[in-house]
Amino acid sequence: MPKSRRANAVMFGFDFRVNAAIVLMIENIEYLKALQLEGNYEDIELELEDGQYILAQAKAIEKSSSDFGNVRKNIRK
């Protein structure tokens, strides 16, 4: 069976990342200076007015209620 060329998973991941950035932005709106997706260091980068940064990775899981194997094997500290 040929590999699917559908971009559903990719689009789901980008959508998830944008939504995660929006949540972080709202949670820090009083102190936010700048927001960048796909930054130099992480998926989401927030620069705060005091010069501090919030760096976040956002990894989406399409079948989050049933697919834990891929998550556990990719978690690293």
Task: Describe what you observe in this structure.
- By secondary structure, the protein is of the alpha+beta class.
- The protein has one domain.
- Helices cover 34% and strands 19% of the residues.
- It has 2 helices and 3 strands; from the N terminus they run H-E-E-E-H.
- Strands 1-2-3 form a 3-stranded antiparallel β-sheet, covered by helices on one side.
- A hairpin with a 6-residue loop joins strand 1 and strand 2.
- The longest helix is centred in the N-terminal third of the chain and has 20 residues.
- It is elongated.
- The protein starts with 7 loop residues before the first helix and ends with a helix.
- The mean pLDDT is 83.
Q: What integer value in Å does the Rg equal?
A: 15 Å
Order of helices and strands: HEEEH
The overall pLDDT average reads 83
Q: Give the amount of beta strand, in percent.
A: 15-25%
Side by side, the strands of the main sheet go 1-2-3
Tally of DSSP β-strands: 3
Shape: elongated
Major sheet description: 3 strands, antiparallel
Query: Any low-confidence stretches, pLDDT <50, length ≥5?
Result: none
List the helices and strands and how they pair.
Blueprint: H1 8-27, E1 32-37, E2 44-48, E3 53-56, H2 69-74
Antiparallel strand pairs: 1-2, 2-3
In short:
The protein is of the alpha+beta class and 77 residues long. It has 2 helices and 3 strands, in the order αβββα.
